Amino acid sequence: MIFGKKINRYYWKYFLFFLFGVLALLVVNWFQLEIPKICGQILDGISDSARQDSDSLFNHPERIRSLMIYLGMIAVIMFAGRFTWRYCIFGVAARIEADIRDEMFLHSERLSNAYYKQHKTGALMALFTNDLQVLKQSFGMGTVMIIDVIFLGGFALYRMFACNWILTCFSLIPMILIAVLSVLLGKILKEKFRQRQEAYEQLSDFTQENFSGIAVIKAFVKEIFEIRHFDKINELNKEKTLNHVRYSTILNVLLNAILSTIIALLIGGGAYFCIHGFMGKEFTVGKLWEFVGYFDAVIWPFMAIAQWINLRSQAGASLGRINAFLDEKIDIEDRETEAIDTILGKIEFRHLNFRYPDGSDNVLSDISFTIFPGEMVGIIGKTGCGKTTVVDLLLRTYNLEEGQLWIDDKDIMHLPYRKVRDSIGYVPQDNFLFSDTIANNIAFAYDSMEEEKIELAARWADVASNIEEFTEKYQTILGERGVTLSGGQKQRVSIARALIKNPSILIFDDSVSAVDTKTEETILHNLRQIRQGKTTILIAHRISTVETLDKIIVMDEGKIIAVGSHETLLTECPMYREMVRLQSLEKAVNGGDENEEIR
Length: 599
Prior knowledge:
The protein is of the alpha/beta class and 599 residues long. The protein has 3 domains: 8-326, ABC transporter type 1, transmembrane domain (ABC transporter transmembrane region fold), CATH 1.20.1560.10; 340-423 and 505-522 and 535-599, P-loop containing nucleotide triphosphate hydrolases (Rossmann fold, 3-Layer(aba) Sandwich); 431-502, 3-Layer(aba) Sandwich (Rossmann fold), CATH 3.40.50.300. Helix content is 63%, strand content 9%. The strands form 2 sheets. Strands 6-7-8-3-9-10 form a 6-stranded mixed beta sheet, with helices on both faces. Helix 3 packs antiparallel against helix 4 (61-110), helix 4 runs antiparallel to helix 6 (121-139) and helix 7 runs antiparallel to helix 11. The two termini are 55 Å apart.
């Protein structure tokens, strides 16, 4: 058992499960201590029979019968009780684990992009696997341990004192040593477990990155280098794990050695009392057997103390890490929102300045322009000039100062961010696709979608013919991150995913860079037909992508250089004119046509 501000409510939520589980465990604990008592009586009956005592148990068949019936009842009760407490306690541990995992996943979905730029996937996966598993054990086996320590240990010690208080006091002296030893080693184990988890995080993160980037590793023939690097990280993980196991083993070995010594001494002392009597009374072999049976029952609670301390130290470390994750601040939240039914698509930047939360300099400076509903607008500029940051702000992935960005003449900071995002279709640069069917990737915005609409979106994105070439067509399962498809095909499936949503605002972030110019022309032609009356923004590096659009925004070093049509910019913007010249020369050098889709 472990307590904390994030988990205490689960004890109340599953109170009845815990109650019935604990009650069943108490019943089992009580009745299992009846077995040594009955066995002691039977052993004394054998001794009395050997001495031909008339009061021997074996001279009274009805007493033997009643004892056998009682043993049978105990077996049934213990069977039912153990099933009940395991179902309730271990079952509720699994339920709590699932609840915490749901809470963590919900929280992870609400965290901003800035959080994931600072934290690696491997470390997060360790929270959802190893750390949660430790908490589950704390709720399950940890509860059993603490109940057994208190009640089974208490019941057994009470019966031991009633049977022979001298032997009981003698046996408790080493138990105090066990408790002290467990506490001291428990602190060390907590630190060793923390180091072990950190090493596992590094290993998990490195492995995940290698699996995701395996194509790059092979292309640069870096397999041997990565294997050597993995060996170092794996060796560190092994060292920290063995270090933790070493201390756990030392604790368990010491406990077993002490307990085995105690049992040997108790049998010797008990034999003395059997010969000479105890406090002027007879101390039979049956009583010795009974006492040893009680002590055997109390061994587990005392062993559980050490294991519980070890488990609790691990759970404390894991809970601290999970609490730190759940305490991460939700950056993007609705403030005082204004009611809005439909977003039409008017966008206005008013002297916007922006820097990233972890940055020191502005990445956007004095950005001002207006896009009216139904316009097709291009944003062009050098790499790193701030084009993607502009659309990230439209998606409300970062907070802004009020009055800098307006949608439909309403401050974006006063609009429900879910409503804003739901009104935008976004095709990102990395074209992330899920390990699912092509159909489900295209219809990602919906729980279900008619196959005809999926095929229509694929035709708009000029990818339908490629999909038809697959044996399973739209039911083809894509590999991780869409690795089954070529670069151009992934871009066009991503485009189809955005088009089927039919949003008020559609954003392409350099989303036709991996297709040939003919395919690009087809996609742009389709956009003009299906996007009439709706706002469309295309970020691009190629002039051919934006030259026919209604308006072109030229950016450089986080600032707006010029805004206008292709013809206007050729006349008034030297930077744009130079870009056109250089790309014309490049096209001429390459043979006048870009007809190869990037793979």
